Amino acid sequence: MPSPVGHALAGVGVAWAADLAPGRRAWRAADPKASLFARAGGTLTLVCGALAAAPDLDLFFHIRHRAVTHSLGAVILIFIVATAVTGWVTGMSRPTLPGPGLERERPALPILRIGLMCTAAYGSHLFLDWLAVDTTFPYGLQALWPFSDGWYISGLDLFPATERRDILSLAAFRTNLIAVSREAAILLPVLGLLWLVRVKALAGLATEPAGGHHASE
């Protein structure tokens, strides 16, 4: 299965791809003179990268790997939590921006858009695992739980297996280095293309009027 590095890269790619979808996107645009972190999408892009790697946290708990956390049920839960948290943050922090002679409210975050972005980032983990090599039985992941207990894998072996036992050994280091190199060779060109297209798509959106949009867009 892919490494946390590969999954995190995929999560960042999902965040940047989501910025290309039509709808309210001006809040994702940053001044060209801003920091690289801001231009890359800031905290939300970082959150998407973390969410994409999060299903493997089951390795630290006494639960079956690639089961509940790698399932449609977990994806649905992430959507509910992400939209709820975004709505809570929006309601709790509505600072004002200076206006001509008065102060005006900062536009609310697009709750549904952020919820879907976070959900897609989490779901990318399942997709990459489905495309990967698995050397441990049962092969694949319990992707449709709780609707099905079946285990699914594509057999395409696009991403090589990683070694998560005795990771300080020379053999494990070599295996994981090969895996991360393969992931980077596949994902970094995609990220580079997304970055170029995203920068062009978001250019000038920071100055768009926020009026006419609803918080749930």
Structure description:
It is a single chain. The protein has 217 residues and is an all-alpha fold. The protein has one domain. It is built from six helices and two strands; from the N terminus they run H-H-H-H-E-E-H-H. It has a two-stranded antiparallel sheet with strand order 1-2. The protein is globular, with a radius of gyration of 20 Å. The model is unreliable at 209-216 (pLDDT under 50).
Q: Assembly state here?
A: single chain
**What is the distance, rounded to the nearest whole angstrom, between the alpha carbons of the first and last residues?**
35 Å
Q: Which structural class do you get from the secondary structure elements? A: mainly alpha
Whole-number tally of structural domains? 1
For the secondary structure, the number of strands is 2
Shape: globular
Question: What is the overall pLDDT average?
Answer: 89
How many helices in DSSP terms? 6
User: Rounded to an integer, what's the Rg over CA atoms?
Assistant: 20 Å
